[in-house]
Amino acid sequence: MKQKRKSEIKGMLCSCEECIDSGRLFENLQKFGSDLKFNNSFNVILNILNALGNKERLSILYALKEKARCVCELEVILDKSQPSISHHLRELEKADLIRGWKKGKFTYYALLSNELKNNLDRIYTEFNLK
After folding, report:
1. Which of 25, 51, 75, 108 could be bridged to 95 by S-S, CB 3.0 to 4.6 A?
2. Residue environment code for 77-107, b if the CB has 16+ CB neighbours within 10 A, otherwise e
3. Quick one: CA torsion of 10, 30, 127, 63, rounded to 10 degrees?
């Protein structure tokens, strides 16, 4: 952040927040922002929400809530190419929302409903929504 903008923000901080030392408040806020990068819970929630925040991935989860499906079934459901589907499946696996396994020459995927529930519970808990 440019020095001029820092000075402007410091000038405004005590107007929107009761404070005596805007410089100290500014530093505390910057530290809070920096700490988020290394906060494990924050990063786990970010991965989950990134996985859920995509139309194709959410469509895959909806398709898998009925039953385990092979990639070719998902291609038909989403009307997308196999490489595109595989990309989304990797993202969902990375977020521990689905699991895949080989069955003959096909790969099948299933929703990890307990993991999905646990992850959603984690989000609720982290934001003190319960």
Report:
1. 51
2. ebebeeeebbebbebbeebbbbebeeeeeee
3. 120
Do 61 and 34 lie in one domain? The reply is: no
Residue 118: CB atoms within 10 A of its CB come to 11
The total of other beta-carbon atoms located within 10 Å of residue 68's CB is 16
Name residue 127's amino acid: F
Same domain, 32 and 75: no
Per-residue confidence band for 99, with pLDDT thresholds at 50, 70 and 90 = very high
pTM confidence score? 0.75
CATH of the domain at 47: 1.10.10.10
In the DSSP assignment, the letter for residue 19 is -
- Tell me 78's DSSP state: H
**Distance of alpha carbon 125 from alpha carbon 8, whole angstroms:** 36
Residue 111 pairs in a beta bridge with 98
